[in-house]
Amino acid sequence: MAEGTPDKKRGYTDIEAMRNACYDYLKLHECIGEKWGKKYHFYFPASTKYGHHQWLWDSGFHMIAWSHKDVQNSIADLRTMLQFQRPDGFIPEIIFWGEETSGAKRVLVKLFGSIFGYSREEYTDITQMPMLPFALRAIWNATNDVALLKEFLPKLVAYFDWWENTRDPDGDGLVSIVHPWESGIDASPIYDPALKVKPADQGKFWKMYPKFLLLQKDYRRKAKWDVQKILAMEKFNVEDVGVCSVYAAGWGILSELASEYDQYLSARCKDKQNFFEKAIIHKCWNPRMGRFVSYYHQGGEEHVSEAETAQSLFPVMFETIPQEMLDKVVENLQDPGKFWLPYPVPSVSKSDPAFNPNRNRLLWRGTTWPILTYFVMEGLLNNGKEEIAKELLTRWIDLYLKHGIWEYYNPLTGEGLGEEGIGMSTVIIDMIERLKK
Question: For the whole prediction, is pTM greater than 0.90?
C-alpha cells in the first residue's frame, strides 16, 4: 500500500497526512501507455474495482485534485479523454484503455459484448455527469494559461451543445439521460419508476441491476445505439434534476472561462446558462413538496419522480435561484430528519422510505458520497452561504480523519464503504484549498 494509506480503524492524525494520502492513492492508479495508436496518461478510479479504464466524472474529479499539486497531470488526463470526443461533441462515459485480453477470456468478452455491449471496443455509447467545466476551471485557476483555454474550452462547449442537440427532444430545457450509469448515481430511488421496479423489489440488487444490462441489450439490438431511437423507446428517459443542474451550472463556468479570450463565446454560454437554469427553476420546483424534483417519460407522458434524494439540492448552484427557493433548499439540507446527518450529504433523505445508510451492493440509496457533498458546497459558496459550507467541510474532514478515504460512507456512523482510496473522493482537497482549512 502507498505511504499514508490509513489504518481502517483510525484514519489520519491531521489534514496534511490525509492530503498526502489522497495523492498517494491517485499515484497508485496512474496509467501511462499507448493503445489504438493513441498515447494515454490518466488515473483509473480504484485499485480493485472499475478496471484500468478512464471514467468521465472520475477523471474530472482527479483533475480537480491534481490541480493543487501537479496540474500537468490534470492536463494530461483531459487531453487523454478528449482523444475520443466524436465530431458531434459527444464524450464517452468510459474509454477502455485497460489491459488487453487474450485467448478464451477475449472470446468471452466479445460474446458478452455482442449481447450487452457497445458499438465499438474503444469506448461506451453513453456519456456521464457533465462536470468537465469544473475540471477545466481548476486547470485554469492553477495555470492562468489562455492557450489551454483555447485548446479545451471549444471542445467542452461542443460537448455541451451535444447535450442540448440530442438530449432535450421536447425542448423544455431539461436534458435527459438514457441509462442510470449516465448520471453516475446508478441506483438512485428517483430511477425506480422509470425502471418499473416493483415496490417489493426496490433496493434489491438482483432484482434491479439486471435491468441496467437489459437496457444495454435493447439499445444495442433494437436501436443500434441511435440516441433518438433510444429516447423514443422510453425504456429509460429521465430528466434528473441533479444532472440538469450540473449541466446548467457548467454553462456558467464555461462563460466565465470564455470571457478570458472570447467575449462572444462567453455571452453565448451565459445565455445557455440562463436558459437552462430558468427551465429547471420553472419546471422542477414543486411547491407542494417544497423541493426540486426529477421527471421520467413513460407511455408518451411525463411523470414526477417523488423520491427525495441529494439531487434535489443541486439547484443551490444557480445564480438565478429565487430567494425563497434557496432558503427552502438550505432548510432541507440542514434538516436533521433529512440531509443534516452526522456525516452529510446522504444520497437519499433520511425521511424517504428508500433510505438505507448501510453497506449494500445496490449503491446510492442512502449512503454519503463525497462527490455529492462537493456539488452542494459549490452551490453554497455560489450563494453566499460560506458558514454552512465550512460546517459541511468540517464534517467531511472529520469523516476522513476518523475513518479514512472511501468511496462512500454510512452517514450515521461514518463507516467507510465501497472502495478504499477511490480517486474521486480526493476532491476534498479542492474545498480545503478554497476555504483554507
Answer: yes
